Amino acid sequence: MYHRTPEFATFFLRNVHSGLDEETRITGGCEPGFYTLRKAMPTKNDLQTQATATTIDLTAPAVELNRVSRLYGSFVALREITVMLAAGSSVVMLGENGAGKSTLLKVIAGLASPSYGTVSVFGEDTRDQRGRVAYMSHSTMLYDELTGLENLTYFGSLHSDGASRRGLQQRAAEALIEVGLEPSNTRRVGEYSQGMRQRASLARVLLSEPDLLLLDEPFSNLDVGSAQSMIARLLDYVAQPSSSGLARTLLLTTHQAELARPLAQSTLTLSGGRLVSLIETAA
After folding, report:
1. Are strands 249-253 and 212-216 parallel, antiparallel or unpaired?
2. Backbone phi, then psi, for 69, in 5-degree steps?
3. Helices in the chain by DSSP H: which ranges?
4. Domain spanning 86-113+124-280: which superfamily?
5. Handedness of CA 117, 122, 128, 129 (dihedral sign)
6. Helix (H, G, I), strand (E, B) or coil at 152
7. Burial degree of 19 (CB within 10 A; 0-12, 13-18, 19+)
8. Residue ranges of the domains in the chain?
9. Considering only CA atoms, which of 71, 87, 172, 93 is closest in space to residue 132?
């Protein structure tokens, strides 16, 4: 088992959020030291095309899936799922363990490709919209040997446009306070409780101010009070439009339907990899 370095995280996260185009090739073994990234320098036409492609369509649905299936060998994790989520919607996804909830989030995030069917995010290929999407998995993706402030300062630098270190630290401190953590805490994240790690992970994904926020079991390991504080933070977040003027969209999975009810404008239910229902509910 290898140790993930910040340099590897930079490589991984930038490509998760930015995507890999056809000129990009990754070669070598599974350890970070063996990765090689080759990418041609962009031409003036490339940059003009990219600028045109980043024009935001405010009328496009946040997520649209058409007959999406995902297979792992002979196991069918998702079966012919067709659904559309409007921009600005807040959706709670329910289902038993193994229903396909985590797989569906990964497909929408562009971290897993559908075996069949198509996925679009804001009207485009999900891989072209990774900069507008944030995904919080069961793993916190935090560095155990760093403090909460050091973690968020580092991750914030991946999304900054030349902000000073002081500015990055200030934004990181604000993000920690917003989820109920103390920025001056000198404990390493590896010494945090599970609930503290979960809150720090939420602060991490909110740093990029995504238009589409995907959360996989965000309330796990939280007591009721901490979970309610997280819900209040999420309600505040989705109520504020993004810098592009687009209403923010939230899709989260949970086994705690009653707890998540304030966030549930709609409830999506999966069973055996199939979409059972998508019902509008009173948030």
Report:
1. parallel
2. -130, 150
3. 6-18, 44-53, 101-109, 148-157, 165-178, 194-206, 224-239
4. P-loop containing nucleotide triphosphate hydrolases (3.40.50.300)
5. negative
6. helix
7. middle
8. 1-42, 86-113+124-280
9. 87
Q: Phi then psi for 146, rounded to 5 degrees?
A: -110, 155
Q: Which helix (H) or strand (E) holds 264?
A: none
Here the tokens at position 8 are 């590897």
Distances (CA, A) of 138 to 35, 176, 221, 273, 279: 25, 19, 11, 19, 26
Query: Residue-wise pLDDT tens for the chain (283 aa)?
Result: 444 444 444 433 444 443 433 333 333 333 333 223 333 445 545 544 444 444 455 567 999 999 999 999 999 999 999 999 999 999 999 999 999 999 999 999 999 999 999 999 999 988 888 889 999 998 889 999 999 999 999 998 887 776 788 888 999 999 999 998 999 999 999 999 988 999 999 999 998 889 999 999 999 888 888 899 899 999 999 898 887 778 899 999 999 998 999 999 999 999 999 999 999 985 5
What pTM value is reported for the model?
0.76
Within its chain, how far is the Cα of 209 from the centroid? Answer: 11
Token digits for 87? 């921009």
Taking the C-alpha atoms of residue 252 and residue 233, their distance in angstroms, rounded to an integer, is 14
End-to-end CA distance of the chain: 44
